[in-house]
């Protein structure tokens, strides 16, 4: 979970499921309770019993809900938190075959399942030979009325390594072109699904198509209208999820003034600003004022333990630039990312070479910082282990 707000939403949702007699609610509630006890330092029989119960419920409740989809489509990879899916990756394996309709059908079932209610990141790792029509079918699936998933980030094709290119939302609507591809769809897709996809209540914050950022609408009107709307958004902060969605979209408005207004509001959001970090780290080009302010805001967010903790526990394998940012953040909280980094490095078959390099470099930097801190602690008079060394130094100075 990225923030306490999201955790509270999950708890309320789980309570409602339990009241309706859904066993998934018990799984989520039990997992949340176990996490709370562990955070308070409890390590007794009660915590062990809760963890055992969570493992039982995962086997009895969660696994059967996704077993059919995963059996039919081994390309689907899910990441779990508290018994619900938080990240989904459709892996193009083997490379020489197209992603078929069976995979799309399995994906549709997953997106309609309660298990996907808190799905935040979707990556469809398909290659150029699959570019049409899969890249457009996935957004269409997300826009269907029965879909419960509300992903914040959707990456179609290769993940972005830099924010240098952008495209209009119309690139996803082949019917507007009126060409052969549009006729091949048989009128199945059109403006209706596209309009349904981009409404703020669906909480879609960013959409990438083969490294290109697709512009998502957040406020109609000219630049002056958008500036006034940005000022109101900055004042409202994180009062509701749709506000955060509009903030995330407005952060990439064509107007520099609008972007700076939103950027200045991020440090005031607390942990809710954490999901903005992975994309801000990709900013390498643009106006000097924009680049400078982005780095200042990232430095400010790096000093907020809640933000660093949220990024450390939630960044995905497509957001490995976050690992480098964490390696330079306060080590006490950034070290929470070490198990996550190690788990990503262990997945040698699905991690791109460039992502692996970033993870390995970040891991080495954290290890070097930890070693330097341990060495320096022997010179800290507050550390009991430094006593013998300090005594020898005093004798040497006095000699």
Structure, described:
Helix 8 (223-236) runs parallel beside helix 10 (256-265) and helix 16 packs antiparallel against helix 17 (353-377). This protein has 399 residues and is of the alpha/beta class. 55% of the residues lie in helices and 8% in strands.
Number of helices: 18
Distance from first to last alpha carbon: 58 Å
* Number of E strands: 7
Computed over alpha carbons, the radius of gyration is 23 Å
Task: Write down the secondary-structure element order.
Answer: HHHEEHEHEEHHEEHHHHHHHHHHH
Number of domains as seen in the coordinates: 4
Average pLDDT for all residues? 84
Taking the sheet with the most strands, its summary is:
7 strands, mixed
Oligomer: single chain
The fraction of residues in strands falls at: 5-15%
Secondary-structure-based class equals alpha/beta
Strand order of the largest sheet: 1-2-3-4-6-7-5
Helix proportion of residues, in percent? Answer: 40-55%
């Amino acid at each position: 979970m990225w923030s306490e707000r999201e955790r509270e939403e999950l708890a309320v949702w789980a309570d409602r499921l339990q009241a309706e007699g859904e066993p998934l609610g018990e799984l989520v509630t039990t997992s949340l309770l176990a996490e709370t006890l562990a955070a308070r330092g409890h390590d007794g029989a009660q915590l062990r019993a809760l963890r055992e119960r969570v493992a039982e419920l995962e086997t009895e409740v969660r696994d059967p809900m996704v077993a059919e989809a995963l059996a039919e489509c081994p390309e689907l990879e899910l990441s779990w938190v508290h018994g619900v899916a938080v990240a989904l990756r459709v892996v193009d394996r083997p490379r020489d075959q197209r992603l078929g309709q069976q995979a799309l059908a399995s994906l549709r079932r997953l997106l309609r399942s309660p298990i996907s209610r808190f799905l935040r990141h979707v990556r469809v790792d398909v290659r150029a030979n699959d570019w049409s029509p899969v890249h457009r079918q996935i957004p269409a699936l997300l826009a269907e009325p029965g879909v419960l998933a509300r992903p914040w980030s959707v990456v179609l094709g290769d993940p972005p390594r830099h924010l240098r290119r952008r495209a209009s939302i119309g690139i996803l609507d082949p019917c507007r072109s009126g060409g052969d591809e549009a006729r091949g769809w048989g009128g199945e897709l059109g403006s209706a699904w596209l309009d349904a996809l981009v409404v703020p209540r669906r909480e879609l914050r960013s959409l990438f198509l083969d490294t290109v950022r697709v512009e998502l609408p957040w406020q109609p009107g000219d630049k002056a209208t958008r500036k006034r709307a940005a000022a109101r958004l900055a004042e409202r902060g994180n009062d509701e999820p749709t506000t955060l969605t509009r903030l995330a979209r407005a952060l990439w408005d064509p107007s520099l003034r609008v972007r700076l207004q939103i950027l200045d509001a991020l440090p005031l959001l607390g942990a809710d600003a954490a999901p903005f970090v992975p994309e801000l780290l990709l900013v390498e080009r643009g106006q000097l004022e924009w680049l400078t302010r982005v780095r200042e805001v990232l430095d400010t967010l790096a000093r907020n333990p809640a933000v660093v903790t949220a990024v450390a526990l939630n960044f995905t394998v497509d957001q490995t630039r976050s690992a480098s940012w964490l390696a330079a953040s306060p080590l006490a909280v950034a070290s929470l990312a070490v198990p996550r980094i190690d788990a990503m490095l262990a997945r040698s078959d699905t991690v791109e070479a460039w992502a692996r390099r970033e993870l390995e470099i970040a891991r080495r930097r954290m290890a070097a910082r930890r070693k330097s801190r341990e060495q320096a602690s022997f010179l800290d008079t507050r550390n009991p282990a430094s006593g013998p060394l300090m005594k020898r130094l005093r004798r040497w100075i006095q000699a």
